[in-house]
């Protein structure tokens, strides 16, 4: 395999943050010697998440074995995921905002036709459903655990307790028609064909759509991590990967 120098479009603050976490972790577990320093391990993990390089490519580029590359990435990802904000943290943050936006995103996965629970009828592909909470500035305070793509958005939000948590905190939330019937503090557009809606209802729906458009910036945050554009790992690891990205997001914004 040929190896050449390359760049990763991640801020140095993200590299420093992950390096510090890895150094602290190594001291905690008493790890004395590694093939890679904490800084190099952090760079290896960021290259995997941001660029989506395979373990074989990472191993060749960093001069380690494929198994070592897998172990280093897994360790860093699990460490980051453990630091991700919980739903309670996100709701606490949301309570200080004028409103939040709730939406679901479907992450593509590599599965065959037999895996029906992961098949999204909307996109006609196998995907995982992740619920996103965005603030009025398009920032990403919370991404839920991943559920099979066949799960509807409102069911996913209820399963994660998002709707009840926002209601209890009194946080106003804008959402699309996929959350119709959620009630509580969830606001959805008026239902019906455009021509059957009154002029006032059409105006409300236009305003609603403009507000909801802010969630696209939060969605784009996840998609800039190219590993999430096509996940080829076990579905049990996807939640950990999403939460690792959620932890890195604030450091990459600095």
- Number of domains in the coordinates? 2
Looking at how many chains there are and whether they match, the oligomeric state comes to: single chain
Helix and strand sequence: HHHHHEEEEEHHEEHHH
| Helix proportion | 40-55%
Relevant terms:
single chain; 254 residues; 11% strand; 7-stranded mixed β-sheet; alpha/beta; elongated; 2 domains
Plain-language structure description:
This protein has 254 residues and is of the alpha/beta class. The protein folds into two domains: 1-83 and 235-254; 87-223, no CATH class. The protein is 46% helix and 11% strand. The protein contains ten helices and seven strands. Strands 1, 2, 3, 4, 5, 6 and 7 form a seven-stranded mixed β-sheet that branches. Helix 1 (12-29) crosses helix 2 (38-51). The radius of gyration is 20 Å and the shape is elongated. The two termini are 36 Å apart.
Compact description:
Helices cover 46% and strands 11% of the residues. The protein has 254 residues and is α/β, with parallel strands linked by helices.
SSE map:
Elements: H1 12-29, H2 38-51, H3 55-62, H4 66-81, H5 87-94, E1 100-108, E2 119-120, E3 125-134, E4 142-143, E5 147-148, H6 153-159, H7 162-169, E6 173-174, E7 186-187, H8 199-212, H9 215-223, H10 238-252
Parallel strand pairs: 1-6, 6-7
Antiparallel strand pairs: 1-3, 2-3, 3-4, 3-5
Helix pairs in contact: 1-2, 1-10, 2-4, 3-4, 4-10, 5-7
């Amino acid at each position: 395999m040929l190896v050449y120098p390359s760049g990763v479009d991640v801020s140095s603050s993200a590299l420093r943050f992950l390096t510090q976490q890895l150094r602290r972790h190594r001291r905690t577990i008493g790890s004395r010697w590694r093939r890679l320093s904490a800084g190099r391990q952090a760079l290896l993990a960021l290259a995997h998440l941001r660029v989506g390089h395979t373990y074989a490519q990472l191993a060749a580029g960093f001069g380690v074995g494929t198994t070592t590359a897998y172990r280093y990435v897994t360790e860093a990802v699990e460490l980051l995921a453990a630091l991700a904000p919980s739903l309670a943290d996100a709701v606490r943050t949301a309570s200080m905002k004028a409103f939040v936006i709730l939406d679901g995103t479907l992450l593509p996965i590599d599965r065959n036709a037999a895996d029906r629970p992961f098949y999204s009828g909307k996109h006609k592909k196998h995907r995982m459903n992740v619920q996103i909470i965005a603030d009025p500035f398009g920032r990403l305070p919370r991404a839920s655990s991943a559920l099979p793509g066949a799960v509807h958005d409102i069911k996913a939000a209820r399963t994660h307790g998002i709707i009840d948590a926002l209601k209890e905190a009194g946080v106003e939330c804008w959402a699309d028609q996929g959350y119709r019937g959620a009630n509580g503090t969830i606001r959805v557009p008026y239902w019906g064909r455009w021509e059957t809606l009154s002029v006032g209802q059409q105006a409300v729906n236009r305003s609603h759509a403009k507000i909801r458009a802010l969630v696209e910036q939060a969605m784009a945050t996840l998609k800039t991590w190219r590993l999430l554009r096509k996940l080829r790992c076990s579905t049990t690891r996807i939640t950990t990967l999403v939460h690792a990205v959620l932890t890195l997001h604030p450091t990459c914004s600095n």
